[in-house]
Amino acid sequence: MIELDYTLRTVALGAAVLGLSSGSLGAFAVLRGQSLLGDAISHAALPGVALAFLLTASKAPLVLVVGAGLAGWVGTLCVSAIVERSRVPYDAALGIVLSVFFGLGMVLLTYIQAQPDASQAGLDTFLFGQAAALVGRDVVTMAVLGAVALVAMLVFWKEFKILLFDPDFAASQGFPVRALDVGLTTLLVVAIVIGLQTVGVVLMSALIVAPAAAARQWTDRLWGVVALAGLFGALSGAAGALLSSATARIPTGPTIVLVATAVVGVSLLLAPGRGLVAAWALGIRNRRVLRVAGTLEDLYTLALAHEDVHYPHPAATLQTMTARPEAVGPTLDRLQKQGLVEPRDDAWALTPRGLAEARRLARTRADEHDPAHLGVEVEGPTP
């Protein structure tokens, strides 16, 4: 039984706030095909943390978050500048900015740790996170900044939506596409930097990508993806905090990421529209429908060779007309239950209803191969 003491409540609440904001805003990055942007921003934020401490000698959460946010924002501008002013592709620009900023951050952290005083202790937790160190004012800071980002997202929902799906149309309608892109990226920066103390630079990108990737499996509507991503992120944060507290020496940040990964796995398997289980069931259903239609058409083809269209034919004859003879028996049983065929002296014949269905299938197939149906212009004879 997990005891919900003050520290655990604080950590769980902070992780839930982080998951809600990062999941909701991360949905835009995932849908725009910029999933790695979160990784670049989180790594680019590290030198900002170090510089904020060097300039202010303060480890106040708001000071460090502002430093991380400025550095992350500068990193995204560097990515955009590299892509726009050179032939370097987007993914390469992300890699360049990520490695350079992260290397600079490590150098600065090493320099800070080498100082003789002890005021720098704890800054290295921004690498891998230390959720257990969260206190009430940290959660308040995360909640306020996250709420500001989410409110801004809702205020500019229409603009961000059109930017997401058709930026060229947005530009043609007079929308400030560049400003909107920078604004959306800025909100993503806010969502990332407030989580650095909880899950760290290395793992923060997972909370941007995983909830959105899971939500995308369940719905095709933007508001649904954003809402579900926020819900999955909040649940992953709270559940990860509770699970890590149940066992000694299990870090909270990695546990949150593992829970979010499990949510993605469940979504990939069980989502009704896109899940692997649904696709497997749909494949079985489609193959069954095709076998039923194929067997019915085979019986109709055989019936056309006789004056009596209801003339029965043995199952062995039908087995020679298909690539899967072992499926003929179960398919005939299914057709019999539907009232389309009937057994006669160890053979099978079309019922009047089955004959009508077979003729409908034949007409449909003929229409599909008709050039006029396919939109192909057929030249007539030259007069």
Automatic annotation (TrEMBL):
The keyword Transmembrane helix applies. Signal peptide: none annotated. Belongs to the ABC-3 integral membrane protein family. The chain crosses the membrane at residues 36-55, 62-82, 94-114, 135-157, 187-210, 222-243, 255-282. Keywords: Cell membrane, Membrane, Transmembrane, Transmembrane helix, Transport. Its main location: membrane. Residues 362-372 have a biased composition (Basic and acidic residues). It is a multi-pass membrane protein. Residues 362-383 are annotated as: Disordered. The keyword Membrane applies. It comes from Rubrivirga marina. It comes from the Bacteria. This is ABC transporter. GO terms for cellular component: ATP-binding cassette (ABC) transporter complex. It is found in: Cell membrane. It holds the Pfam family ABC-3. One of its GO terms (biological process) is response to zinc ion.
